[in-house]
Amino acid sequence: MIVRIATENQYRLPEEDADRLNELDNEAVSAVDAGDEPRFQAIFEQMLNIVRTDGELLGDDDLEESDVILPPPDLSFEEASGEFTGDGLIPD
Amino acid sequence: MAGMGGRMSTVIKAKISKLLDKAEDPSETLEYSYQKQMELLQNVKKGVADVVTSKKRLQLQANKLEQQVVKLDTQARQALAAGREDLARVALERKQFAQQELQSLDGQVAELETQQAALVEKEQKLRSKLEQFRTKKEVIKAQYSAAEAQVKISEAATGVGEEMADVGLAMQRAMDKTENMRARANAMDELEASGAFDDNLTLTPGQDDLDRELAELTSGNQVDDDLARLKAELGTGDTPAPGQLGAGEGGAEGKPQEGTP
Questions:
Q1: Tell me, what's the ipTM?
Q2: DSSP result, B10-59
Q3: Mean of the per-residue pLDDT values for chain B?
Q4: Which range, of B76-90, B145-159, B186-200, averages the lowest pLDDT?
Q5: Which positions in chain A touch B37 (Cβ < 8 Å)?
Q6: Where are the domains of chain B?
């Protein structure tokens, strides 16, 4: 599985991590819905950690498409609360 | 993934396909992507230059503030020695304010440095991917049938397109942050021009809005502590100090180096 941390790097992760990441991803969304910023930050941090520690950095000569793209690590809670839809976070 | 990662992936993929759909056949796609990437590289360079400019400006402001902190401390000392506790208090309030601003500026400069390094790294990465893409397209054209080549080329174009979208995102975030800091730097210039960091302490406390504002911004306790420390150092204190000269130093942890008494 190829995972990109937006504005950073692309990583190759073992398939087993997909479930764990998916679970955390859902938890992060529910934390955002609940307006629980500290919990969101903790979960998001955990997701980034899994990718950074378990993942193998993709080389610059790899031109692969990511299966999953995580938002930028400096994502603010306001942005997480719904800014990254439409044109909000990605420029043309 | 249905959550954040999924949403983010969807948005990026939509951007890439929008980008690639503009061309119809694979070689056109390649040329188009290549051209887009070159434009983007120029933008990244401009982004880095903007970050550097903002950083320099903030560093200049930080230097000015450092001088102000030293000056205000000296002024407070002089005011106290002359028996003007009211003036000393104003000076110390301003010193606290300047110190807070300084701390926040230092943080911003550090952040800009990180941004700058990250952008440079992203630029290099995009450059190598671009180079890889250019080589690969020739290899693909030479080795595969037209139909296969089309598939392979689309894959490679998508990979590079993703990197492009990502560099674009990194750049936009860096520029937004730089813009915020620029606005803040402008606000500080205005504050300075309005006399908040005047060379001479001509205002008396409570006399104008600025003083009230300053008093709100600063912690009264810190100013009281500072005042007590100065009194102790000058030996004019009505507050009983544990020692004589230099007694306040132990309690001044976390504060910048004091001037020589």
A1: 0.85
A2: HHHHHHHHHHHHTS-SHHHHHHHHHHHHHHHHHHHHHHHHHHHHHHHHHH
A3: 74
A4: B186-200
A5: none
A6: 23-161
Q: Give the pLDDT confidence of B9-22 residue by residue, as tens digits.
A: 777 777 777 766 66
Place of tokens 């952008």: B119
What is the distance, to the nearest Å, from the Cα of residue A89 to the centroid of all Cα atoms in its chain?
14
**Minimal-distance CA residue of chain B relative to A25:** B3
A13 touching chain B per CB within 8 A: no
Task: Please name the member of B1, B129, B166 whose beta carbon is closest to the beta carbon of A25.
Answer: B1
Substitution target in B36, B166, B178, B180 with the highest count of A β-carbons within 10 Å is: B166
Say which of B9, B162, B173 has its CB closest to residue A7: B173
- For residue B166, the chain A residues in CB contact (below 8 A) are 4, 6-7
d(CA B41, CA A44): 30
Q: Is the pTM of this model over 0.80?
A: no
**Rg value, chain B, Cα:** 29
Minimal Cβ distance to B133: which of A63, A69, A91: A63
- Residues A5, B103: Cα–Cα separation, whole Å: 30
> What are the tens digits of pLDDT across the range A8-29?
899 999 998 888 988 888 888 8
Comparing alpha-carbon positions, the chain B residue that sits nearest to A19 is B1
B129 close to B158: Cβ distance less than 8 angstroms? no
Task: Read off the pLDDT of residues B78-113 as tens digits, 9 standing for 90 and up.
Answer: 888 888 888 888 889 889 888 888 888 888 888 888
